[in-house]
Structure formats: structure tokens, C-alpha cells
TrEMBL record:
This is DUF2231 domain-containing protein. It comes from Nocardioides eburneus. The chain crosses the membrane at residues 21-52, 72-97, 104-127. Keywords: Membrane, Transmembrane, Transmembrane helix.
Length: 132
């Protein structure tokens, strides 16, 4: 005689978010929005950093050293765009962790710190291409 199949177990629901984790979601996404606004400001300021080449002597002036244009452009590009890479990665990680009961508030803070570091590094790189 054959045995009947056991009934299937119902699918488990994912654990519900508690009040603290809901607040963490709200704070995390607000911090991400703030980081995105600061990213726009950093891109704008980085683009205005091109004015530091106004101090470069003209090529006809043989008395002073010329600017290192490639270094200046690399620094301005780094300062204007590198923080967007961190924000895109932070967005992906936050989306992934939003569906799990894990805190996400720290992700935009890390992206903000890394973006500020690359902005400062890019500005220093651009400034190092200007003769003093």
C-alpha cells in the first residue's frame, strides 16, 4: 500500500520590520538623498575648479613653468565625477539590504565619506598641476 504525501508546509513570510528598522529605512534613504544633493554640489564646484588654470602662464612666457594640463584635467575629472560611482554602488547596496532586516543608515554615510575623500584628492591633484 502506498503512503499519502505529507501536506506541503506553508511558505514562510519574511520577518516583519520592527519600528526601529522602519525608522532606519527612512533615515537611510533621507541620508542617501542628502548625499545625492551634495554630489550635485560637488560636481558643480568641481567644474568651477577649472578656473584655477587662470593662473597658468601663457605658452609664450618663457620665464615661468607651464601648467601640467593633463594633471589638472585628471584632478578636475576625479573631483567632479568619482563620487557618483560611490553613490551608484550605495544605491545598489541599499536596495539589496532594504528587503532584509538589516540596518542601512551607514551606507550613505560611507559613500559620503568616500566621495568627500575623492573630491579632496581630485582637487589636490588638480592644484598640484599649477606652478607656484
Amino acid at each position: 500500500m502506498t503512503q499519502p504525501l505529507p501536506p506541503y508546509a506553508p511558505l514562510r513570510k519574511p520577518p516583519a520590520r520592527e519600528g526601529g528598522l522602519v525608522a532606519d529605512l527612512v533615515v537611510g534613504w533621507l541620508l542617501f538623498a542628502m548625499a545625492a544633493v551634495l554630489g550635485v554640489v560637488a560636481s558643480f564646484v568641481g567644474a568651477f575648479s577649472m578656473m584655477m588654470t587662470d593662473a597658468c602662464p601663457s605658452p609664450a612666457d618663457a620665464r615661468s613653468a607651464p601648467c601640467d594640463d593633463e594633471r589638472v584635467m585628471a584632478g578636475i575629472t576625479l573631483a567632479s565625477t568619482a563620487h557618483w560611482l560611490f553613490l551608484v554602488v550605495a544605491f545598489g547596496v541599499m536596495m539589496w539590504l532594504s528587503f532584509r532586516p538589516r540596518p542601512i543608515f551607514w551606507i550613505p554615510l560611507v559613500a559620503l565619506l568616500l566621495g568627500a575623500g575623492t573630491f579632496a584628492g581630485g582637487e589636490m591633484l588638480a592644484y598640484s598641476g599649477i606652478p607656484h
